[in-house]
Amino acid sequence: MSGPSRRTVLAQGSAMLALTAGSAFAGPPAAPDFPFPGGNGARPLTKDFPQKGTMVLQRSRPPLLETAFTDFDNQVFTPNDKFFVRWHWSVIPTEIDPASFRLKIHGAVEREISLSLSDLTSLKKVEIAAVNQCSGNSRGFFEPRVPGAQWGNGGMGNARWTGARLSDVLEKAGVKSSAVMARFTGLDQPTVSEGPVFKKSLSLEHARQPEVIIAYAMNGKPLPLLNGYPIRLIVPGWYSTYWIKMLSDIELLEAPDDNYWMKTAYLIPDTPRADMKPGQAGLTMVPINRMLPRSFITNIGRDAKLKANAPAALRGMAFGGDCGVAKVEVSADGGQSWHEAKLGKDEGAYSFRQWTARVATGAAGPATLAVRCTNTKGEAQPDTPNWNPSGFMRNVVERLPVTLA
Amino acid sequence: MKFIAVTGCVVLAASLMAAAPAFKSMSIELPPDAASFPDGPNVKTVNQNCLACHSADMVLDQPLLPRTTWTAEVTKMRNVYKAPITDADAALIVDYLAATHAPP
Predict the structure, then answer these.
(1) Which domains does chain B have, with CATH numbers?
(2) Chain A closest CA to B95's CA: distance in Å?
(3) pTM of the entire structure?
(4) Interchain contact, B30 vs A94, CB within 8 Å
(5) Which CATH class is domain A294-404?
(6) Which end of chain B has fewer surrounding CB within 10 Å, N or C?
């Protein structure tokens, strides 16, 4: 008889149980009912999307799939089949032939070039761990509520990306001194042909930074098609809107990009944390850019029951935004007292960083757990949420109501 | 200039890196999406127009929004995303949304 004996299977099973004991998240994810202000937070789970496992269904078409929050627990890298999915237009190629796929580089260049996938893989290979987070992650928690994808906190993920440096690709084409921006387009198409093709731009200075890569692997595997197969732009530290999927075209521009997706959409007020008041006028609006620090408790769910007057083992992850994590603190009393968490392995400045902590709980009754990240630039998550009409860049200290008994 | 400080983190030893993947032809099928909008005034017009570009859950998952916001959303669908919705249908769609998905 081949394969593990029943005894072995049982032994492995009980070992796994021991590891997950105390976690309110043991077992498969449940369909979430996000506690959004004003409600309407119930979402179904789906296993119907190709190359994806169980995901939270935010929108069927164009696909908008959220990572179930339990999938962030106890693993620093988000599995490819659990990584969130977001498309703007419904016309997504469902077939990719890698032999004929080309990445075109044109515009203000010395020579227009068209690179095959093997051209790309023959360039110097680099690898970087980086968080990919939707600009509007956690939008459903905005108050007052704003229209847009009503994400919970799972519109983000962390992966190890492998690819070629964008600067090496640009070098092959020879960027003219008149170029000021690089504009990126993928293979997705507007549903209505006159609609604006999804294009995003980076300044040439940013495009040439060594951490900006064109990835052909995600956690060591080809990207799932819905995450951008065969290649995707990786812009560590910046929001996902710049991480163009199925990247097929790079155009060097001699003037700032005035296309809709840069000039009108994805704008934020030029204020700290993009914070403003509803209806506030006279603000300068700029394209969204760098991410802010965030942190989460991942082993305890909302409204979990914990032991009163006892040590509670907490774990989770944090990220600094566009720099590393300096410190994670946790609180078991709603933020009155804070205790520094122990940071896990450093996978690089742009990665999730795991943390663990033990805190003493108080007397029986309702309590609030909280977690706060300070990044290596000294920026800490604030106690009050930011607000803007697009629902971008939420990074308030996360608070988790629990019951102590 | 702010990126210079992190340059050193980017490159890892080659031995730690995954090999370049073998690219394979990829073909997927997206799941069917047949759901229509729940009953309400002008629902037929809503189904005829809105479902051409996106599924109903895009709208149904939104918070309750005032009529002015729904008007702006329908206007954006027409003017920015070029949805071919007539003036008459746009008014009927806003009426549906204001009747079924707005605060009391």
Answers:
(1) 42-104 (1.10.760.10)
(2) 17
(3) 0.91
(4) yes
(5) mainly beta
(6) C
